[in-house]
Amino acid sequence: MPVNFLTTPIDYLSGVGPSRAELLRKELGIMTYGDLANFFPNRYVDRTQFHKINQLVPETAQVQIVGKLMSISTAGAGKATRLVATLADDTGRMELVWFKGQKYFKESLKVNEVYVVYGKVSRYGAMYSIAHPDVELLKEYRGRQQNSMTPIYPSTEMLTKRHLTNKYFVRLMRQLFSEIKAAFVETLPDDVMRDQQLITKNAAMQEIHFPSSTNGLQAALKRLKFEELFFIQLELLLQNRIRKTQIKSFAFEIVGDHFNNFYNFNLPFELTGAQKRVVKEIRADMANGAHMNRLLQGDVGSGKTIVAVLTCLLAIDNGFQACIMAPTEILAQQHMAGVSELLAPTGLRVALLTGSVKTKARRIIHEALEDGSLDILIGTHALIEDKVKFLNLGVAIVDEQHRFGVAQRAKLWKKNKLPPHVLVMTATPIPRTLAMSLYGDLDISVIDELPPGRKEIKTVHRYDKNRLGVFSFIKEEIQKGRQIYIVYPLIQESETLDYKDLMDGYESIVREFPMPQYQVSIVHGQMKSEDKDYEMQRFVEGKTQIMVATTVIEVGVNVPNASVMIIESAERFGLSQLHQLRGRVGRGADQSFCILMTGHKLSAEAKTRLETMVETTDGFKIAEVDLKLRGPGDIMGTRQSGVMELRIADIVKDNELLAVARNAAINFLQEDPAIGMEKNINVRRVMAHLQSRKGLWKYIS
Ligand code: ADP
Ligand code: MG
């Protein structure tokens, strides 16, 4: 436990005072000495380096320049008033600009003096400028003892406005550390410290705020990141253990006739090795009375559906019902069609429940569910409505879970005395270590092998002006009997505009591909669901050759004869979405293509996305690039997961360290499962502190 005075309220620190204390609490959540010590810099600058003005380039971030102040004057009028100074070194001139505190700077800065200025450069025309630079007379700068690494603390608009500058925080830290001395108790076990060659907590805390050298700083960062990740992993592992030992579910002890007959006589194809392995994992997991909570990852087209069906059969063989939830109506329908076809020879009862099922049909489903005559219910969110009551739901399969909120998933649990087993399927590949830290309390199965005979989808990037070439390519493919998707973006904020784009696109396609030679379908969100179904169905049956659509066809839709995916305004899609869309083709034996259409102007990030798509079809590689571009929260839509609120480690950049920390945590628990050994008292204290919030601690003793 931290020594007592780390819990001292921040008000007592010299240099704080009541109003600043209030600000620190409100803006940064800093209540105590300890909180302040744990307020880490988010970067460091090397203030021993200087730039010359003629070396500046637009990408230069923070720079430090020595120059003479040539002039200073007020420019602009009214709200646009600003203070502008010219700074010159022996290579050129640049501007310094102030919008705030103009009076102060105008009075205190002296023309013809030499200053050290520091800040972020931007360029207007040919002139570089720094707005609100740090300025210091060269002679004062020289008089100060220069530390090579200056920590830069995170700030907020309010802090800046109230003049709680970086300098203030540096001073405050100095004050804090002189008062608390070496107050930080070690939190990690000795052997872990030794194995990982970590510096002590005390040394790391000192070094993170007052780096003595680059190496010292690196050691501190490593130590503190490791510590953070280690305790998160420990927590996740404990949660997982608790789930397995404390949360009971049904034991599917037998593998019965439904499963065996289907497996031996009705499988339409031989399972891939990966599918077999995953089915085995699921079977073992559901057999022992512990609750299964498993994430099944498999790239688009890897064959998750059959795994879902076999999972349902295991439940049914043991006298239970099963359900499959999908994020959209179309997907639910596709599952319904696919599953009923697969199970047709078995005589099992499967029903579809979506928002558009009529009251009367709905009532029949409700009854069949409650009297147990219905074996499998497939549907959308409609499945979690209160009226839907299973007689005995044994397993819930959730397809494309990132569309379902955590709360919605929990609702499924309410229907039973015991929670049903849960299998979450996703085609969004999540790098394994990330998956572990996001869903550390889930077990993970991966289908990492595509069914045999698939050809790699050829992907190209084309500009709008090449459209005619693309059209003639489409014609050739249609001639060969193939079908084509043309997808338009639909982004909530500009729905009407997007809708117009889609309709314009549709009209030009119809002009280019006229009836009766060609048939074009259209599906979008503003259509009635019967109409959508009708159009979708025509395309599935091959009655139309082209499907113009918004992203409603993104996930799951399966038309093996479709071999070309054209994505319009591809720069507007995220990587994982592009990957999902591309996965709609390449499902049959033919060579498939994906054409990414864009305008000429592309942001650097959009270019990276397009290049990545052209380069690889490996979902995991794509996920990693996506992760780097967007950060983990956006990808999962699970910012609320809490695990992501890291103080110092970065789940993307520190991926390797995360794996190391996880292994260390696994080994640690193996040696001391109850965290009861004398030598691990430190760890026990930290865990007790972390878990007191969550009420988990009672399970560990
Ligand atoms: P996804 O994982 O994207 O849901 P699906 O389950 O829809 O993939 O399977 C994609 C296609 O591959 C389907 O047409 C399915 O019938 C076929 N498929 C799945 N597994 C195999 C296999 N082992 N051998 C051959 N084809 C398979
Ligand atoms: Mg699927």
UniProtKB/TrEMBL annotation:
<dbReference type="InterPro" id="IPR011545">
    <property type="entry name" value="DEAD/DEAH_box_helicase_dom"/>
</dbReference>
<dbReference type="GO" id="GO:0016887">
    <property type="term" value="F:ATP hydrolysis activity"/>
</dbReference>
<dbReference type="InterPro" id="IPR004609">
    <property type="entry name" value="ATP-dep_DNA_helicase_RecG"/>
</dbReference>
<feature type="domain" description="Helicase ATP-binding">
    <location>
        <begin position="285"/>
        <end position="447"/>
    </location>
</feature>
<comment type="function">
    <text>Plays a critical role in recombination and DNA repair. Helps process Holliday junction intermediates to mature products by catalyzing branch migration. Has replication fork regression activity, unwinds stalled or blocked replication forks to make a HJ that can be resolved. Has a DNA unwinding activity characteristic of a DNA helicase with 3'-5' polarity.</text>
</comment>
<protein>
    <recommendedName>
        <fullName>ATP-dependent DNA helicase RecG</fullName>
        <ecNumber>5.6.2.4</ecNumber>
    </recommendedName>
</protein>
<keyword id="KW-0347">Helicase</keyword>
<keyword id="KW-0547">Nucleotide-binding</keyword>
<dbReference type="Pfam" id="PF00270">
    <property type="entry name" value="DEAD"/>
</dbReference>
<dbReference type="InterPro" id="IPR047112">
    <property type="entry name" value="RecG/Mfd"/>
</dbReference>
<dbReference type="InterPro" id="IPR033454">
    <property type="entry name" value="RecG_wedge"/>
</dbReference>
<keyword id="KW-0413">Isomerase</keyword>
<dbReference type="Pfam" id="PF17191">
    <property type="entry name" value="RecG_wedge"/>
</dbReference>
<keyword id="KW-0378">Hydrolase</keyword>
<dbReference type="GO" id="GO:0006310">
    <property type="term" value="P:DNA recombination"/>
</dbReference>
<dbReference type="InterPro" id="IPR001650">
    <property type="entry name" value="Helicase_C-like"/>
</dbReference>
<keyword id="KW-0234">DNA repair</keyword>
<dbReference type="GO" id="GO:0043138">
    <property type="term" value="F:3'-5' DNA helicase activity"/>
</dbReference>
<dbReference type="Pfam" id="PF00271">
    <property type="entry name" value="Helicase_C"/>
</dbReference>
<dbReference type="GO" id="GO:0005524">
    <property type="term" value="F:ATP binding"/>
</dbReference>
<comment type="similarity">
    <text>Belongs to the helicase family. RecG subfamily.</text>
</comment>
<keyword id="KW-0227">DNA damage</keyword>
<dbReference type="InterPro" id="IPR014001">
    <property type="entry name" value="Helicase_ATP-bd"/>
</dbReference>
<keyword id="KW-0238">DNA-binding</keyword>
<keyword id="KW-0067">ATP-binding</keyword>
<dbReference type="InterPro" id="IPR012340">
    <property type="entry name" value="NA-bd_OB-fold"/>
</dbReference>
<dbReference type="InterPro" id="IPR045562">
    <property type="entry name" value="RecG_dom3_C"/>
</dbReference>
<dbReference type="GO" id="GO:0006281">
    <property type="term" value="P:DNA repair"/>
</dbReference>
<keyword id="KW-0233">DNA recombination</keyword>
<dbReference type="Pfam" id="PF19833">
    <property type="entry name" value="RecG_dom3_C"/>
</dbReference>
<feature type="domain" description="Helicase C-terminal">
    <location>
        <begin position="466"/>
        <end position="633"/>
    </location>
</feature>
<dbReference type="GO" id="GO:0003677">
    <property type="term" value="F:DNA binding"/>
</dbReference>
<dbReference type="InterPro" id="IPR027417">
    <property type="entry name" value="P-loop_NTPase"/>
</dbReference>
